[in-house]
């Protein structure tokens, strides 16, 4: 059997699953699950992976993630290989932990992100582990419904912004309503989940057309320069946060940590740490968020 395509580009959105070898458990303790979440955090810090949702079952896991760079293989190697090393060392075992390669479905974010978040969060309910999805400790549903505090590396705003002023209550109602959607029944070529227009664009990309010729991916080639980002920030933000906001918006626009570090004369790790701290501040400081939104609006114009 041929390997499935790995379609990678900056801003790509995926539903990723990986199952234990021979369907055996890959999580046997609370410590195992905590360690796996640590590796999600390190994938965010090291490779800029944007984790939107997760659910850790006993013998498999689900992730809804976005790549800020064209680096899905590196992200998944960081997660699966690191966790396998931990798991094998802890139990004095060797060999494969996961069954073959992970499965990654490229997703039309605008059409399917909400449905996939519900599908992922309803996993424990479908196998009757809990009655309500937010009761399951090892998924992000408790975070989306306001029961658990979100870690700095989990991105919830992209989905919760669809639920108005009281997103936690609205998401709670959404996740348990009409939850019969099964993404695996609508996947094209075992690889793509999206509206017909999205599938057509990705098919062209797969056939080798230049990324600038794919309408859905033009934002990468048409992104503002780092100089323009720095200028827009300097005209809108107070001096004491200018540099931090420049770093944050530059990564949001698809620049790699290395590219940002070279321009601002910083190490990639320092850029990553600064952006994680700034992201946490934006969530808690309304005025800072308004300033960031103002800069992004200026850049869009």
Provide key terms for this protein.
Chromosomal Replication Initiator Protein Dnaa, Chain: A; alpha+beta; 301 residues; Alpha-Beta Plaits; 50% helix; five-stranded mixed beta sheet
Describe this structure in words.
With 301 residues, the chain is of the alpha+beta class. It has two domains: 12-196, Transposase IS200-like (Alpha-Beta Plaits); 223-300, Orthogonal Bundle (Chromosomal Replication Initiator Protein Dnaa, Chain: A), CATH 1.10.1750. 50% of the residues lie in helices and 10% in strands. It contains 14 helices and five strands. A five-stranded mixed beta sheet has the order 2-3-1-4-5, with helices on both faces.
Explain the layout of strands and helices.
Blueprint: E1 12-19, H1 30-47, E2 49-56, E3 60-67, H2 72-91, E4 103-107, H3 109-121, H4 123-126, H5 141-144, H6 157-160, H7 167-175, E5 192-193, H8 196-206, H9 218-221, H10 226-236, H11 239-252, H12 257-264, H13 268-284, H14 286-300
Parallel strand pairs: 4-5
Antiparallel strand pairs: 1-3, 1-4, 2-3
């Amino acid at each position: 059997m041929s390997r499935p395509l790995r379609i990678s580009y900056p801003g790509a959105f995926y539903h990723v699953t990986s199952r234990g070898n021979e369907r055996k458990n890959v999580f046997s303790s609370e410590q195992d699950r905590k360690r796996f979440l640590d590796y999600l955090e390190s994938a965010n810090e090291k490779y800029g992976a944007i984790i939107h949702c997760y659910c850790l079952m006993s013998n498999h896991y689900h992730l809804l993630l976005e790549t800020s760079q064209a680096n899905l293989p590196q992200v998944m190697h960081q997660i699966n290989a690191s966790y396998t090393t931990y798991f094998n060392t802890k139990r004095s075992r060797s060999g494969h932990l996961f069954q073959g390669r992970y499965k990654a479905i490229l997703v039309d974010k605008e059409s399917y992100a909400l449905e996939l978040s519900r599908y992922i969060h309803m996993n424990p309910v479908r196998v009757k582990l809990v009655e309500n999805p937010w009761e399951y400790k090892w998924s992000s549903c408790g975070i989306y419904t306001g029961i658990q505090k979100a870690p700095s590396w989990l991105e919830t705003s992209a989905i919760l912004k669809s639920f108005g002023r009281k997103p936690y209550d609205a998401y709670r109602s959404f996740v348990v309503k009409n939850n019969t959607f099964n993404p695996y029944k609508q996947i094209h070529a075992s690889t793509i989940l999206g509206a017909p227009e999205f599938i057509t664009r990705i098919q062209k990309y797969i056939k080798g057309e230049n990324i600038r010729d794919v309408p859905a991916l033009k934002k990468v080639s048409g992104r503002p320069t780092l100089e323009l980002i720095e200028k827009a920030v300097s005209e809108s933000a107070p001096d004491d946060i200018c540099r931090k906001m420049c770093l944050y918006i530059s990564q949001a626009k698809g620049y790699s940590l290395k590219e940002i570090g070279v321009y601002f004369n910083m190490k990639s790790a320092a850029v990553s740490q600064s952006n994680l701290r700034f992201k946490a501040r934006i969530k808690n400081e309304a005025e800072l968020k308004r300033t960031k939104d103002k800069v992004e609006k200026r850049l869009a114009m």
